[in-house]
DUF2487 family protein (Pseudoneobacillus rhizosphaerae), 154 residues
Amino acid sequence: MKWIQEDMEMFVKAREYLDTVVIPLYPISFGEDVKQTANMTEFINLLTTQLERQFKGRLILLPGFTYFKKQDSDKLVNDLLQWENTLISEDFKHVFYVTSDSDWKLKEQELTGSLIWLPALPLELLDGKSRNTMIDDQVKQLLNLFVKRWHNEL
């Protein structure tokens, strides 16, 4: 389910079955890495949107956590921990962060939720069909990871 009114109506009806939240992490930079961070955001957006389609009714895709790359990393972690605490208090058992920003790997141990880091694909070099195929391949790998995590909690 996406964070849109139509899906939230379904969420209210099926609340007891929804225990998973996905939060895309979107970096922003206007420096030399502006194109790289834009590509990361575009890639993670495509990936998480497709992931949500596969698991509609099982998870909620929240709007992305957008941040400036130059922001203090400890503050960013604290902000995410506040999100996690709120989500856990709302009875979500699984919080997944999806990102292409490798800086998050250095902070992964500080997060309670699961961090999924994937290198961004060079989307500008791919035609529409190739792009969709590569995204679908990545999503298939993620599907297995999500299912394994859910089964480990049983």
Remarks:
- The CA atoms of residues 85 and 112 lie 9 Å apart.
- The radius of gyration is 16 Å.
- The chain has a mean pLDDT of 90.
- The chain is about 45% helix and 15% strand.
